Amino acid sequence: MLYRMLATMAHRRPDAIAVRTANGEAVTYQELLAHVDRMAEGLAARQVGRGDVVACRGLRNSTGYVAFILAVAKTGAVYVPLIREFDREGLDEAIRRTRPMFVVTEDEHHLVSPTVDSVALKELESAGPPPVSSPAERDAVDGPFRILWSSGSTGFPKMISWRQDKLLQERKRWVRHIGLTDTDVVFCGHTLDVAHATDLHLFAALLAGAPLVLGEPESEPERLLGELEGTGATMMSALPRHYAQLADAADTQKDAERPTLSALRLPLCGGTYVGSNLVARCRRSLGIVLCEIYGSTEFGLAAVDLPSAPAVSRHLPLVTGVEARLEPIAGAGRDEAGELVLSSPWTSEGYLHSEVAHLRTFRDGEYWTGDVAQRDDSGRYRILGRVSESLPATHGLLFTPGLDEDLVAHCPVAEAVSVVADLDDPDVRVHVVVRPAPGRAAEEVRAEVRARLVGHHGLTGDVVVTDTIPRTAVGKPNKALIRSRAGADQ
After folding, report:
1. Which CATH architecture group holds 394-489?
2. pTM of the prediction?
3. Residue extent(s) of CATH 3.30.300.30 domains in the chain
4. Predicted confidence (pLDDT) per residue in 43-56, tens digit
5. SS in 3 state form for 269-316?
6. Among 40, 97, 190, 260, which has the highest number of CB atoms less than 10 A from its own CB?
């Protein structure tokens, strides 16, 4: 499946650059194929075969990491990244649930857990030429190819299983829909252990025959701006926060020195709510028109507003082949909003070992997103927030993403993240964490946010002013941590 995709591209474009890294390392499609073959040989030498689980932890973005993912696919094994958010207890639990044969790490001195062996990435391949006869690709279409992790907002992260055949078809559909070709340059600023990096960047680039540029995830925004311009990137996908940081960096530079991102024709933005304030700011500061995307690790990509078909009033058109409907929810009229329910033949197998959550989310061939949306007359959808994030405000149901955007627009805050409080506490409806605007005092910010909550929205809530908002490994606000801290403070 994925290996044959690479082999086909290596036959068509053997000398074209497949992957380039921030430190200048680059491989062609033919070289990447040989690298994958050596990795697959190394896995086979360690008795890895169809259905066996191989985990990894803490790998840096490199051509070797790309080759490792594809080598696991070639052997028919199961790829499991142990995400950076796992602490010691979380790592032990993830290893207990997935039972990997070993964990691949950056070097031989990195012991992830005393319960499982660690193998350095470089040990999976020899330094010599590719083998004359390498293991044939297993057609493991009836079992999982990878296990990814949910956000963990309701407990320990759930395991999300994907088959190779469905992942490949879903990615092909996406590449066709956005019009990605071998003339594009795909820039990835995320670590490869998250789906945002592999699905929106790695697999999409390889399918299109486009070069994939692996940026350094910890790069300062100023450096990232230069890399985007210097590489001629035409497509990237990032969270709203990342684009806001790029806009901040651009605003600090003189006009004559400001990098131009005119080549970036597909600046995809998603993962969390994309506010109209950010869209306007990116147009002004970066000269780009954000393309909002909507999807999930469980489902894949469902909607996108491309430059050729821009969103109307923040309503997104569906990806070709995806179907959707709205399920009515309490507190909203049937024609106003509902829970977004999606369907597609190319999606994940759902949650492993989480039967209750699986049955609630995956029902009769449909995926119940847990998100509330509105539908316009043309069949486009506007995402409002989570079903669990609705607030009984003065002017009707208000969802926390809309509240966050409102607070940024009307209060002296640079960023706001709100979470719904426990429903059994009538005196506290919402917990709000804000990062103050430059030069504004914490007490002043707290007072204005509280006044906006009560005076305009009719909401009572706790307001915490901080310089650092907790984040997940991919960069989203860590609402589970914010909620737990708020509860601990009560």
Report:
1. 2-Layer Sandwich (3.30)
2. 0.89
3. 394-489
4. 999 999 999 999 99
5. ECCCCCCHHHHHHHHHHCCCCCEEEEEECCCEEEEECCCCCCCECCEE
6. 40
